[in-house]
Design a protein that fits this description.
This protein is an alpha+beta fold. It has 6 helices and 16 strands. The strands form 3 sheets. Strands 6, 7, 8, 9, 10, 13, 14, 15 and 16 form a 9-stranded mixed sheet that branches. A 5-stranded antiparallel sheet has the order 1-2-5-3-4. α1 crosses α2.
């Protein structure tokens, strides 16, 4: 059901704020405007298109479009894309970045432990987002500077960033379809002798609102884990996520009685385990489909020095690459 484009030079690399003009095909008669636009402009999420309609950035035959407008077919639609407000609130800061890969569509970062990903309460500066805006000024036009998934402040490892709206939409959809492969290395307390799967919903803790927990009615969450090495004190695991809930691996391992070594929220200090300054969790591998080429790609991050030292203190072998 094609629409005729009055402005035909719109593409993934076009100016993110350049107006888009469409002549609606009669085939879309009876559909709501936002439904039709989400099909005609798959580079933008439906939520974003609905927001632009509400904010009067979409006109139909020259007039601002009502939020629930139904199409007759033949209308002239003009969209003025807007950068999301949150993408413009934060200042670029020249902070060091370890970049594993970069092209016109995506950027893959190796995040160190201790770096906050996104500004928020108590952490408005010195974040990965601030560093990204300094590295690539065009990211100011992409919501959240292109960040499509997060790592906790004290979790290290691989993280993907979208450099265009089109790439962001693709990566978000891949995450929703659970086709992004994310593998973590984790050091859990106690001996786990065989791998398994934790399929348990996660939601906000009922009384401690800064924590998450396995709760009835929470959001679906699935973590697969495999044993790399173990002894009586601790186990080195490879964890693979199907979903990406807040604190997912930390909550799931605690729920089966094996919290992460060093986890300040979900574990307690154990006398037989060395003190560790953060949760022993590292995003070791990320694989996805490139938004532009359609080719599968993957990246790895080596285990950081502090986790290598922890494994040595626990007398556990280093994982093979």
């Amino acid at each position: 059901m094609p629409a005729q484009k009055l402005s035909v030079d719109y593409n993934a690399s076009a100016d993110a704020t350049k107006p888009i003009e469409l002549q609606i095909s009669p085939d879309y008669a009876g559909q709501r405007l936002d439904q039709a636009l989400s099909q005609l402009l798959p580079s933008y999420s439906r939520n974003r298109l609905q927001q632009w309609i509400r904010d009067r950035h979409v006109t139909v035959d020259g007039d601002p479009a009502p939020p629930r407008l139904k199409l007759r077919g033949g209308e002239a639609v003009r969209i003025a894309p807007q950068a999301a407000p949150e993408a413009l609130e934060f200042a670029p800061e020249a902070l060091p970045l370890t970049i594993l890969y970069e092209d016109e569509s995506i950027l893959i970062v190796d995040k160190p432990a201790g770096l906050v990903v996104h500004p928020g309460s108590g952490n408005w500066h010195g974040t990965l987002l601030n560093a990204l805006l300094a590295h690539a000024a065009a990211l100011a036009q992409v919501p959240r500077a292109g960040i499509v998934h997060r790592l906790d402040k004290d979790t290290s490892g691989v993280l993907a960033v979208a450099k265009t709206l089109t790439a962001q939409t693709s990566l978000v959809r891949q995450l929703q379809a659970r086709t992004v492969h994310r593998e973590y290395l984790a050091v859990a307390r106690g001996s786990i002798t065989r791998g398994g799967t934790v399929d348990a919903p996660i939601g906000r803790h009922r009384t401690q609102r800064t924590r998450m927990a396995v709760v009835a009615g929470g959001r679906a969450a699935v973590t697969h884990y495999a044993v790399v090495a173990h002894n009586a004190r601790a186990t080195l695991l490879r964890c693979r996520l199907e979903t990406g809930r807040t604190h997912q691996i930390r909550v799931h391992l605690q729920s089966i009685g094996h919290p992460l070594v060093g986890d300040p929220a979900y574990g307690r200090r154990a006398a037989d385990v060395p003190a560790f300054a953060r949760q022993a969790l590292h995003a070791a591998r990320l694989a996805l489909i490139h938004p532009a080429s359609g080719k599968p790609m993957s990246w790895q991050s080596p285990l950081p020095a502090d986790m290598r030292e922890l494994l040595a203190a626990l007398e556990l072998p280093l994982p093979e690459d």
